[in-house]
Amino acid sequence: MPNSSLFLVCGDDDFAVKQRAKKLFQEWSAELGGMDHETIEATVSNGGDALNVIGKLREALQTLPFFGGGKVVWLRDCNFLGEDRTASSAAVTETLAELAEELKNFSFQNVRLLISAGKVDKRKVFYKTLDKIGTTEVFTSWSQDDKDWADRAQMAARDAVRKREKEISGAALGELVIRAGLNARQLENEIEKLCVFVGERKKIELADVTTICAHSKTAKAFALGDALGDRDLPRLLKRLDEELWETKFDKDKSEIGLLHGLISKVRAMLLLKEMLREGWVKDTHDYNNFKSQLERVPADQMPVEKKFNPLALSPYVLYKALPQVKKYSSAELVRAMDVLLRCNQRLVSSGLDEALVLQQALVQIVSPNAAAN
To answer: What structural domains and CATH numbers belong to the chain?
Structure first.
């Protein structure tokens, strides 16, 4: 049976890890009482510092509470359990393996050990031991590769709003998640701002979100697609310039990445237009009504591959595209896909200026000279 006095909280969702570990430390401290609880900072820059931290942990575990009773030891923000150079050094790996053996035989009668860390290497002895004899919780960050990332973000946002004794409309929640993107910490910060902004008012509405909430990197990427969907050429070119400028300083962004985002947007609009034509969904200004319609769409009629399946997208992304599909005919959307695919070929195989290639493609798509419906 896992030891409830030994707990590892880890994962690449830094915000969730910190929140969970802090809550657990406070609960344990209140439960045990006393003044002897210890926090050991475990963010290090080299192997020598890691060994010093492990030494402090051993000492803390062996030191009995001065006033009797129980004691909580928190090894906080440990960064040498992963796969980087410090964690992979022979001395650190060997010492952690020794510590794992000690923990197997340690009497946790009056002591509880909490370890919070970033991404850990689950292949190593230390993690395997803690996972076997203690309790482990792993928090993974939201990713656009996950079909349900928006649902998970919305669930977290609803919980955060309820904790502040507020409510939030469906449209406001969808816009909030799009603006905060994959960043859980920013989502929490935006909710805090919203609750202060609305004051005594109980419910947060869409207008509140559009007034007060900032755009994350993910939201800016959506904003480029929205400008294309709105068929607003001046705004589209302005957004493109902003995104191209950021590619110079952000290694995670590229011209090809921007293009693929635009391809996904047009594909979603094309598929949504077909869903409207089939009568699976109907035009509505009610977000909750639209979500209910999506839940009734026959899944067996949708493409198996995720990138071709509109139901794999956030419902709010599709909801925002509802008025946009009216601005294009089906033929224009098919033509837009062809333009973007040819743009992709030119970016990959020619030496032309990437910004110019993208601008020309977008002007071709938005210009009102495509085939009629």
So the answer is: 6-138 (3.40.50.300), 149-212 (1.10.8.60), 218-366 (1.20.272.10)
